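How it folds
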Amino acid sequence: MSKLNNSHKILSQLDAVEWLKSLDDASIDLLITDPPYESLEKHRKIGTTTRLKESKSSSNQWFSIFPNDRFEELFIEVFRVLKKNSHFYLFCDSETMFHAKPIAEQVGFKFWKPIIWDKVKIGMGYHYRARYENILFFEKGKRKLNNFSIPDIIECPRIHKGYPTEKPVDVSKVLINQSTDPGEIVADPFFGSCSIGVAAFELDRNFIGNDIADGAMEIAQERLSKYITTSTKEITEKTVEDINLVPQLSLALV
């Protein structure tokens, strides 16, 4: 059963790369994340997305973009913290995919394919309006998927009026079920609405995550308080030692 260094908090509020640097080598079983990628700025500027609420073209506060030129340092740390035989899933649009894929391969990941999240209904845009999002599927070492009958298209309606770029819990559940066993550790350095954390706890996995945005931290504390027997205020103060293993009664699954 997987364990982290006892000093690690469940939720942290740091720069994503700095947070990953605080984790031990080969300590994570699965990493899934959805960075606020740079192309969102372009879509925001021309009005083809409402998801980015802090940008050069908007004075509203929510979160800052993660620039493309930082992907290499991000992927180096992701590769380091993942165990030898593990998977890494990256949510991104098509423009970011062409930038991120070769960098991830360069640092050591094997790229298998893009998985498609079909959002069922079309979104905003001008040229063939978007209805899907890519989930890049990478592997470190060799790990079999748990179910070979799962297709590479995941159909699940988008979240309306939620956190910007919020991903449905059911999409994350597919990835977690495929790439981990109960009790293993799932991590997300850009947790946003913390849907990945919710999915992990509902599937009897452990979760640690990070997001630099105040809004994200508030939402994550509230959502995870349903699964952890502690007050919402204390979640960021609890360490892995306090609630590390799902089978222990220190977790209350509902």
DSSP finds eight helices and eight strands in the chain.
